[in-house]
Specification:
Elements: E1 10-16, E2 29-35, E3 43-52, H1 56-59, E4 82-89, E5 99-102, E6 109-113, E7 123-124, H2 142-154, E8 162-165, H3 171-182, E9 186-191, H4 194-202, E10 208-211, H5 217-224, E11 229-234, H6 238-247, E12 248-256, H7 277-282, E13 285-288, H8 298-310, E14 318-322, H9 327-335, E15 342-346
Parallel strand pairs: 8-9, 8-11, 9-10, 11-12, 12-13, 14-15
Antiparallel strand pairs: 1-2, 3-4, 3-6, 3-15, 4-5, 5-7
The chain binds NADP nicotinamide-adenine-dinucleotide phosphate.
The site of NADP nicotinamide-adenine-dinucleotide phosphate has 31 residues, from helix 2, helix 3 and helix 9.
């Protein structure tokens, strides 16, 4: 272990100060100093370079409701995906200077335990040769695995099929669109601004895209895919899922990835589904999934996606938020669609 005296003993980090009623506000957060625990046997101290803003954190900001993750404790530093360099190590698998992907986000420094290898365990990552540390939070990390597993394992997309992707200009959606094109599918995409719609078609290769805010989703989807769709990759729920159920062909599949249309709403206000009978009529398969359920396929995912990246066949879109203090506003903005691609907070190193 290094000399503790030269290492930080506290960190700036973000806490939730109350559980919001509906819409999240910046005033629900505090950015402040937290004590760091000792680096005891089996743990490491990491200086974060980046942390990730993920919609699932919003689910954890509702008291006592979630089964997806446990709710955040109030007034304690939040956690989430991050990447940084090891400053001190009391674990044989990690050396000072290693880059590591871990779950101690929303802060500058994190002391993280290294339990048995599971989805949340710190993982050493390679940087260089065109790969930056932040790629491991996005295209080569949780967002990438979500897109890959949802499309190819859950959605079982085949060449020549048509897939509809919602929240398509976001972290997962931008990758789903491009992976589906690489597989030889026809891609219909939806997003919330005209700029995003242009980007999806002109830069990411979607065949058709529409702005879901300007017309009912069902009308736009029917116009975009008059012959129907085979797979729906659902990051939204609500009106998008209802429209997709009507437009899916017999035997179609739905990869239930997220329901962001409801995250900022209280239970009874969340949109329901009206067209589920279509699943019976057409023999549809609706399957929910979490990326971590495909952790045992991580190496295969990584090899395939890293190869696409190296061949410049995948664009990694990102929206960068500068500094921890801006992270609450960046998070709220992402929930409302201010981002394109992965929302990442750059952690500015302290000068003193
Ligand atoms: N199952 C898993 O393991 C897993 C893993 C990662 C993410 N997810 C889910 O996948 C979805 C996307 O996550 P992400 O990380 O890629 O985030 P993201 O798409 O980068 O950001 C969220 C986007 O959702 C869109 N949105 C917000 N409210 C909406 C609404 N009412 N209707 C339609 N679109 C809306 C916004 O874009 P617009 O401008 O287009 O509205 C926003 O940019 C989320 O539901 C998330 O929970 C699931």
């Amino acid at each position: 272990m290094n000399e503790r005296a030269v290492l930080p003993t506290s960190t700036r980090g973000v806490a939730l100060t109350r559980y919001p009623e509906g819409e999240l506000q910046e005033s629900d957060f505090a950015v402040r100093e937290f004590d760091l625990p000792e680096v005891t046997q089996g743990s490491i101290l990491v200086q974060n370079e980046w942390f990730s803003l993920d919609p699932s954190s919003r689910i954890r900001m509702t008291a006592g409701e979630s089964t997806y993750f446990t709710p955040f404790a109030l007034d304690e530093v939040l956690d989430g995906w991050a990447v940084g360099r090891v400053l001190d190590s009391a674990h044989d698998d990690f050396a000072v200077g290693d880059y590591v992907h871990h779950f101690g986000g929303w802060r500058e420094y994190a002391v993280v335990a290294v339990p048995d290898k599971d989805w949340y365990s710190p993982r050493r990552v390679e940087v260089g040769g065109g790969i930056d540390s932040r790629h491991h939070l996005g295209v080569l990390g949780p967002s990438g695995l979500t897109a890959w597993a949802g499309l190819f394992r859950v959605g079982r997309l085949k060449p020549g099929e048509t897939v509809f992707v919602s929240a398509a200009a976001g972290a997962v959606g931008t990758l789903v669109v491009q992976m589906a094109k690489l597989m030889g599918a026809t891609v219909v995409a939806s997003a919330g601004t005209d700029e995003k719609v242009r980007h999806l078609v002109d830069d990411l290769g979607a065949d058709v895209a529409f702005n879901y805010r300007v017309a009912p989703v069902l009308d736009s989807l029917q116009a975009a895919a008059p012959g129907g769709i085979d797979v729906y990759f659902d990051g939204v729920g609500g009106d998008h899922l209802d429209a997709a159920l009507l437009q899916l062909r017999a035997g179609g599949r739905v990869a239930l990835c997220g329901q962001i249309a409801g995250y900022n709403l209280k239970g009874d206000d969340r949109p329901g589904i009206k067209n589920l009978f279509s699943a019976i009529e057409k023999g549809l398969t609706l399957q929910g999934f979490l990326a971590r359920m495909y952790f045992d396929e991580f190496d295969e995912f990584y090899r395939e996606v890293a190869e696409w990246l190296a061949r410049d066949q995948l664009i990694f879109d990102e929206t960068i938020i500068e500094g921890i203090d801006a992270s609450p506003a960046g998070f709220i903005g992402m929930l409302h669609g201010t981002n394109i691609g992965k929302s990442l907070v750059r952690v500015t190193p302290r000068t003193s």
